[in-house]
Give the backbone structure.
Amino acid sequence: MSEVITDPRYWDCECQSYYIHPKSTLECSVCGISQQEYMSDAIASEVGVYENMAANRPVEREGMQV
């Protein structure tokens, strides 16, 4: 069985999508879980997918998509 490599720059919440957050984000605005509660570093192979999705995701500002 291969070892799971994590990325300490990011953490995972419990959402089904957009569940990877930078460590600078202390709480998920969707599921409400905090980084301190969950404390799980993101799987390194998923971080690249997150970064690509984040680059192409509409930005939300004050409840509106931009």
